[in-house]
Amino acid sequence: NAGVTQTPKFRVLKTGQSMTLLCAQDMNHEYMYWYRQDPGMGLRLIHYSVGEGTTAKGEVPDGYNVSRLKKQNFLLGLESAAPSQTSVYFCASSQTRTSGKGETQYFGPGTRLLVL
Amino acid sequence: DAKTTQPPSMDCAEGRAANLPCNHSTISGNEYVYWYRQIHSQGPQYIIHGLKNNETNEMASLIITEDRKSSTLILPHATLRDTAVYYCIVRVAGNNAGNMLTFGGGTRLMVKP
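YS: structure for the whole thing
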């Protein structure tokens, strides 16, 4: 199993450009998440999905959109990139909402985004 | 979810046990204690979790005080590869916020030769 993979690994954008970050998981997990991490900070949840075709806002959703058309993929879109969106983006997935190990989140390697 | 307090940094000698404390004095009865770590430039990695009993797995041990207001993550024989930021997270199992993990500042553990 590859686990959670993210594409691309690194990207440079100009202000106003758009892009889509792809997250894929091969563990048949129901839940998927997008986080951002700014330098020296903890992770903050952007959006999440509790199943195919469903998405919800997290802590910092402004400026981002997401889609979950297939269970294994979770896309994060930036319609008009801003310098404040320069960050490292992590995708994660988890199996179920019930207590115990099933709630463990498995993270991808991250996408480093620089917006000039 | 209850807030947690961790020391910003700690050092540990290679081969020794690393004991990382976490205070969660406002923890509720149905909240679990989770530990994740983040090695430089990588995604966070799950380590262990518990409710009220002490837990042990292949990576670490988790000691939770009887009143559940604090806990300690123990890496029994720290190696240089254990150098990372360790996050203590307290949260309700199966809450409606999509299993949101709230990451605070964590403890930066430096394992030295």
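YS: worth flagging: The mean pLDDT of chain B is 90.
IM: good catch. Also Residues 51 and 92 of chain B are 10 Å apart (CA to CA).
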